[in-house]
Batch of 3 targets.
Target 1
Amino acid sequence: MLSPFERGLVAHLVADWLLQNDWMAVHKGNLRHPAGWVHAFIHFILLSWALGPLGGLVLAVVHLVVDTGWPLNWWLRAVKKCGNSPHFEMIRFWTDQVVHIAAIAAWVQFGPK
Protein backbone atom coordinates (compact mmCIF):
# COMPACT_ATOMS: atom_id res chain seq x y z
CA MET A 1 0.00 0.00 0.00
CA LEU A 2 1.29 3.48 -0.87
CA SER A 3 1.51 6.29 1.67
CA PRO A 4 -0.23 9.59 0.85
CA PHE A 5 3.12 11.14 -0.13
CA GLU A 6 3.94 8.22 -2.41
CA ARG A 7 0.51 8.49 -4.07
CA GLY A 8 1.04 12.23 -4.55
CA LEU A 9 4.52 11.70 -5.97
CA VAL A 10 3.29 9.07 -8.44
CA ALA A 11 0.40 11.34 -9.46
CA HIS A 12 2.84 14.20 -10.07
CA LEU A 13 5.24 12.05 -12.08
CA VAL A 14 2.46 10.66 -14.25
CA ALA A 15 0.99 14.13 -14.88
CA ASP A 16 4.34 15.80 -15.59
CA TRP A 17 6.14 13.01 -17.44
CA LEU A 18 3.60 10.66 -19.00
CA LEU A 19 0.64 12.94 -19.72
CA GLN A 20 2.26 16.32 -20.42
CA ASN A 21 2.78 16.76 -24.14
CA ASP A 22 4.89 19.26 -26.05
CA TRP A 23 1.96 21.66 -26.50
CA MET A 24 1.55 21.89 -22.73
CA ALA A 25 5.28 22.11 -22.03
CA VAL A 26 5.79 24.92 -24.53
CA HIS A 27 2.76 27.06 -23.62
CA LYS A 28 2.05 26.39 -19.92
CA GLY A 29 3.93 29.49 -18.79
CA ASN A 30 1.31 31.79 -20.32
CA LEU A 31 -1.86 31.91 -18.21
CA ARG A 32 -3.78 33.28 -21.21
CA HIS A 33 -3.07 30.05 -23.11
CA PRO A 34 -5.19 26.96 -22.35
CA ALA A 35 -2.17 24.63 -22.16
CA GLY A 36 -1.27 25.52 -18.57
CA TRP A 37 -4.87 25.14 -17.47
CA VAL A 38 -5.18 21.74 -19.13
CA HIS A 39 -1.91 20.64 -17.51
CA ALA A 40 -3.10 21.89 -14.10
CA PHE A 41 -6.44 20.11 -14.57
CA ILE A 42 -4.61 16.83 -15.20
CA HIS A 43 -2.70 17.41 -11.96
CA PHE A 44 -5.99 18.18 -10.20
CA ILE A 45 -7.55 14.89 -11.34
CA LEU A 46 -4.56 12.74 -10.40
CA LEU A 47 -3.75 14.55 -7.15
CA SER A 48 -7.43 14.39 -6.13
CA TRP A 49 -7.20 10.62 -6.48
CA ALA A 50 -3.99 10.64 -4.43
CA LEU A 51 -4.78 13.20 -1.74
CA GLY A 52 -8.46 14.08 -1.94
CA PRO A 53 -10.24 16.89 -3.82
CA LEU A 54 -8.97 19.74 -1.63
CA GLY A 55 -5.37 18.54 -1.91
CA GLY A 56 -5.82 18.11 -5.65
CA LEU A 57 -7.19 21.63 -6.02
CA VAL A 58 -4.58 23.35 -3.85
CA LEU A 59 -1.67 21.49 -5.42
CA ALA A 60 -2.98 22.02 -8.97
CA VAL A 61 -3.14 25.78 -8.34
CA VAL A 62 0.37 25.73 -6.85
CA HIS A 63 1.53 23.74 -9.88
CA LEU A 64 -0.07 26.23 -12.27
CA VAL A 65 1.61 29.20 -10.55
CA VAL A 66 5.03 27.52 -10.40
CA ASP A 67 4.75 26.57 -14.07
CA THR A 68 4.30 30.22 -15.08
CA GLY A 69 8.02 30.44 -14.40
CA TRP A 70 8.09 33.73 -12.56
CA PRO A 71 8.45 32.29 -9.01
CA LEU A 72 11.29 30.02 -10.13
CA ASN A 73 13.04 32.66 -12.18
CA TRP A 74 12.92 35.06 -9.22
CA TRP A 75 14.23 32.37 -6.83
CA LEU A 76 17.06 31.35 -9.13
CA ARG A 77 18.21 34.93 -9.72
CA ALA A 78 17.57 36.52 -6.30
CA VAL A 79 18.27 33.64 -3.92
CA LYS A 80 20.44 31.09 -5.75
CA LYS A 81 22.25 33.79 -7.77
CA CYS A 82 22.61 31.49 -10.76
CA GLY A 83 20.94 33.63 -13.43
CA ASN A 84 24.11 33.80 -15.50
CA SER A 85 25.07 30.16 -15.12
CA PRO A 86 25.60 28.23 -18.35
CA HIS A 87 23.58 25.51 -16.61
CA PHE A 88 20.63 27.80 -15.79
CA GLU A 89 18.04 25.80 -17.75
CA MET A 90 19.05 22.51 -16.10
CA ILE A 91 19.07 24.13 -12.65
CA ARG A 92 15.66 25.65 -13.40
CA PHE A 93 14.29 22.29 -14.59
CA TRP A 94 15.32 20.42 -11.44
CA THR A 95 14.34 23.27 -9.12
CA ASP A 96 10.87 23.16 -10.70
CA GLN A 97 10.57 19.45 -9.93
CA VAL A 98 11.82 19.87 -6.36
CA VAL A 99 9.33 22.69 -5.71
CA HIS A 100 6.43 20.56 -6.97
CA ILE A 101 7.48 17.56 -4.88
CA ALA A 102 8.12 19.73 -1.80
CA ALA A 103 4.60 21.18 -2.19
CA ILE A 104 3.17 17.65 -2.16
CA ALA A 105 5.23 16.79 0.94
CA ALA A 106 4.09 20.00 2.67
CA TRP A 107 0.45 19.23 1.90
CA VAL A 108 0.76 15.69 3.24
CA GLN A 109 2.55 16.89 6.38
CA PHE A 110 0.63 20.08 7.18
CA GLY A 111 -2.63 19.93 5.22
CA PRO A 112 -5.93 18.96 6.81
CA LYS A 113 -6.23 15.32 7.79
Note: The chain has one domain: 4-110.
Target 2
Amino acid sequence: MQIYVGNLPTEFTDADLKLMFEPFGKVLAASIGKEPGYGFVEMQKKSEARAASDGLRGKEMQGKPLRAKILKPGDEFHKQAQALHGNSGFKGGAQQFRGAGGVRAGGAIRRGGQRGS
Protein backbone atom coordinates (compact mmCIF):
# COMPACT_ATOMS: atom_id res chain seq x y z
CA MET A 1 0.00 0.00 0.00
CA GLN A 2 1.21 3.44 -0.90
CA ILE A 3 1.29 6.26 1.64
CA TYR A 4 1.81 9.98 1.08
CA VAL A 5 3.66 11.73 3.93
CA GLY A 6 3.70 15.53 4.12
CA ASN A 7 5.19 18.20 6.38
CA LEU A 8 8.48 16.34 6.67
CA PRO A 9 11.58 18.24 7.80
CA THR A 10 13.49 19.46 4.75
CA GLU A 11 16.65 17.57 5.76
CA PHE A 12 14.81 14.21 5.84
CA THR A 13 16.31 11.50 3.61
CA ASP A 14 14.89 8.32 2.09
CA ALA A 15 16.59 6.35 4.88
CA ASP A 16 15.04 8.58 7.58
CA LEU A 17 11.60 8.08 6.05
CA LYS A 18 12.04 4.32 5.93
CA LEU A 19 13.21 4.22 9.56
CA MET A 20 10.16 6.20 10.65
CA PHE A 21 7.79 3.60 9.13
CA GLU A 22 9.68 0.36 9.96
CA PRO A 23 8.25 0.01 13.49
CA PHE A 24 4.83 -0.51 11.88
CA GLY A 25 5.87 -3.27 9.46
CA LYS A 26 7.83 -4.15 6.33
CA VAL A 27 8.68 -1.11 4.17
CA LEU A 28 9.13 -2.01 0.51
CA ALA A 29 10.18 1.47 -0.62
CA ALA A 30 10.55 4.98 0.81
CA SER A 31 11.37 8.10 -1.23
CA ILE A 32 11.46 11.80 -0.58
CA GLY A 33 9.59 13.78 -3.25
CA LYS A 34 11.24 15.88 -5.92
CA GLU A 35 11.18 18.78 -3.49
CA PRO A 36 11.88 18.37 0.25
CA GLY A 37 9.00 18.26 2.70
CA TYR A 38 7.06 15.26 1.44
CA GLY A 39 7.62 11.65 0.51
CA PHE A 40 6.08 8.34 -0.39
CA VAL A 41 6.25 4.99 1.36
CA GLU A 42 5.06 1.57 0.25
CA MET A 43 4.35 -1.07 2.84
CA GLN A 44 3.75 -4.74 2.20
CA LYS A 45 0.49 -5.20 4.13
CA LYS A 46 -2.60 -3.01 4.16
CA SER A 47 -3.01 -3.43 7.90
CA GLU A 48 0.55 -2.25 8.53
CA ALA A 49 0.15 0.71 6.19
CA ARG A 50 -3.06 1.77 7.91
CA ALA A 51 -1.48 1.42 11.34
CA ALA A 52 1.51 3.51 10.24
CA SER A 53 -0.68 6.18 8.67
CA ASP A 54 -2.91 6.39 11.74
CA GLY A 55 0.03 6.27 14.14
CA LEU A 56 2.09 8.97 12.44
CA ARG A 57 -0.66 11.33 11.28
CA GLY A 58 -0.51 14.48 13.39
CA LYS A 59 2.82 13.59 15.03
CA GLU A 60 4.68 16.84 15.52
CA MET A 61 8.03 17.25 13.76
CA GLN A 62 9.83 20.58 14.06
CA GLY A 63 6.62 22.31 15.08
CA LYS A 64 4.49 20.96 12.21
CA PRO A 65 2.03 18.04 12.30
CA LEU A 66 2.84 15.20 9.90
CA ARG A 67 0.36 14.41 7.19
CA ALA A 68 -0.10 10.77 6.30
CA LYS A 69 -2.60 9.50 3.76
CA ILE A 70 -3.14 6.11 2.14
CA LEU A 71 -3.04 6.67 -1.63
CA LYS A 72 -5.65 5.27 -3.98
CA PRO A 73 -5.60 5.26 -7.78
CA GLY A 74 -6.73 8.64 -9.01
CA ASP A 75 -5.31 10.50 -5.98
CA GLU A 76 -3.26 13.58 -6.80
CA PHE A 77 0.02 12.00 -5.68
CA HIS A 78 -0.53 8.43 -6.89
CA LYS A 79 1.21 8.85 -10.26
CA GLN A 80 4.00 10.86 -8.67
CA ALA A 81 4.63 8.07 -6.17
CA GLN A 82 4.81 5.51 -8.97
CA ALA A 83 7.23 7.69 -10.92
CA LEU A 84 9.57 8.03 -7.94
CA HIS A 85 9.58 4.34 -7.09
CA GLY A 86 9.37 2.96 -10.62
CA ASN A 87 8.49 -0.70 -11.01
CA SER A 88 10.85 -1.87 -8.28
CA GLY A 89 9.00 -0.53 -5.24
CA PHE A 90 5.34 0.06 -5.94
CA LYS A 91 4.01 -3.29 -7.05
CA GLY A 92 1.17 -3.27 -9.50
CA GLY A 93 0.17 0.35 -9.06
CA ALA A 94 -2.95 1.32 -10.94
CA GLN A 95 -3.10 -1.86 -13.00
CA GLN A 96 -4.18 -3.80 -9.88
CA PHE A 97 -7.47 -1.94 -9.86
CA ARG A 98 -10.33 -2.40 -12.27
CA GLY A 99 -12.12 0.32 -14.13
CA ALA A 100 -11.28 3.05 -16.58
CA GLY A 101 -8.18 5.09 -15.94
CA GLY A 102 -7.06 3.02 -12.96
CA VAL A 103 -10.08 4.03 -10.89
CA ARG A 104 -11.63 1.32 -8.79
CA ALA A 105 -14.99 0.25 -10.16
CA GLY A 106 -17.86 -0.24 -7.82
CA GLY A 107 -20.17 2.39 -6.59
CA ALA A 108 -20.77 4.74 -3.77
CA ILE A 109 -20.74 3.50 -0.25
CA ARG A 110 -23.96 4.42 1.47
CA ARG A 111 -23.84 5.40 5.08
CA GLY A 112 -27.07 5.53 7.00
CA GLY A 113 -30.42 6.41 5.53
CA GLN A 114 -32.66 4.08 3.60
CA ARG A 115 -31.79 2.30 0.39
CA GLY A 116 -33.40 3.48 -2.77
CA SER A 117 -34.35 6.86 -1.45
Note: The longest strand covers residues 27-32.
Target 3
Amino acid sequence: MQTVRTTIRIRKDLLDQSRFLALRRDTSLQEVINDTLAQGFGHISDFDIHKQAMARIDRFRESLKGKRIDIKKILRESKKDLK
Protein backbone atom coordinates (compact mmCIF):
# COMPACT_ATOMS: atom_id res chain seq x y z
CA MET A 1 0.00 0.00 0.00
CA GLN A 2 1.31 3.41 -0.91
CA THR A 3 1.50 6.10 1.76
CA VAL A 4 1.65 9.85 1.35
CA ARG A 5 3.21 12.28 3.76
CA THR A 6 0.88 15.16 4.53
CA THR A 7 0.13 17.84 7.09
CA ILE A 8 -3.39 18.19 8.42
CA ARG A 9 -4.95 20.05 11.32
CA ILE A 10 -6.67 17.88 13.91
CA ARG A 11 -8.60 19.13 16.91
CA LYS A 12 -6.58 18.71 20.10
CA ASP A 13 -9.28 16.69 21.88
CA LEU A 14 -9.46 14.23 18.96
CA LEU A 15 -5.69 13.94 18.83
CA ASP A 16 -5.55 13.25 22.58
CA GLN A 17 -8.22 10.54 22.25
CA SER A 18 -6.33 9.00 19.33
CA ARG A 19 -3.09 8.95 21.31
CA PHE A 20 -4.85 7.29 24.25
CA LEU A 21 -6.39 4.68 21.94
CA ALA A 22 -3.00 4.02 20.32
CA LEU A 23 -1.49 3.40 23.74
CA ARG A 24 -4.32 1.04 24.71
CA ARG A 25 -4.01 -0.89 21.44
CA ASP A 26 -0.21 -0.85 21.65
CA THR A 27 0.00 0.53 18.11
CA SER A 28 1.05 3.76 16.43
CA LEU A 29 -0.93 6.98 16.31
CA GLN A 30 -0.74 6.82 12.52
CA GLU A 31 -2.45 3.39 12.49
CA VAL A 32 -5.26 4.63 14.74
CA ILE A 33 -5.90 7.69 12.56
CA ASN A 34 -5.77 5.65 9.32
CA ASP A 35 -8.17 3.03 10.74
CA THR A 36 -10.57 5.72 11.93
CA LEU A 37 -10.55 7.45 8.54
CA ALA A 38 -11.14 4.14 6.74
CA GLN A 39 -14.11 3.30 8.99
CA GLY A 40 -15.56 6.76 8.40
CA PHE A 41 -15.34 6.37 4.64
CA GLY A 42 -17.01 2.97 4.95
CA HIS A 43 -19.97 4.59 6.71
CA ILE A 44 -20.17 7.24 4.00
CA SER A 45 -20.30 4.64 1.22
CA ASP A 46 -22.95 2.65 3.18
CA PHE A 47 -25.10 5.77 3.43
CA ASP A 48 -24.66 6.41 -0.29
CA ILE A 49 -25.79 2.86 -1.16
CA HIS A 50 -28.82 3.28 1.12
CA LYS A 51 -29.61 6.63 -0.49
CA GLN A 52 -29.45 5.08 -3.99
CA ALA A 53 -31.77 2.23 -2.96
CA MET A 54 -34.31 4.64 -1.50
CA ALA A 55 -34.19 6.73 -4.70
CA ARG A 56 -35.00 3.59 -6.74
CA ILE A 57 -37.94 2.81 -4.48
CA ASP A 58 -39.20 6.38 -4.79
CA ARG A 59 -38.94 6.24 -8.59
CA PHE A 60 -40.87 2.94 -8.59
CA ARG A 61 -43.59 4.44 -6.40
CA GLU A 62 -43.84 7.47 -8.67
CA SER A 63 -44.20 5.20 -11.71
CA LEU A 64 -47.19 3.47 -10.06
CA LYS A 65 -49.12 6.71 -9.53
CA GLY A 66 -52.22 6.93 -11.65
CA LYS A 67 -52.16 3.25 -12.59
CA ARG A 68 -55.02 0.97 -11.67
CA ILE A 69 -53.66 -2.02 -9.78
CA ASP A 70 -55.82 -5.04 -9.01
CA ILE A 71 -54.39 -6.49 -5.81
CA LYS A 72 -56.64 -9.58 -5.94
CA LYS A 73 -55.34 -10.41 -9.43
CA ILE A 74 -51.74 -10.03 -8.27
CA LEU A 75 -52.40 -12.32 -5.29
CA ARG A 76 -54.01 -14.97 -7.50
CA GLU A 77 -51.03 -14.93 -9.85
CA SER A 78 -48.61 -15.09 -6.92
CA LYS A 79 -50.41 -18.14 -5.53
CA LYS A 80 -50.19 -19.83 -8.94
CA ASP A 81 -46.43 -19.18 -9.01
CA LEU A 82 -46.03 -20.72 -5.56
CA LYS A 83 -47.67 -24.00 -6.64
Note: The mean pLDDT is 87.
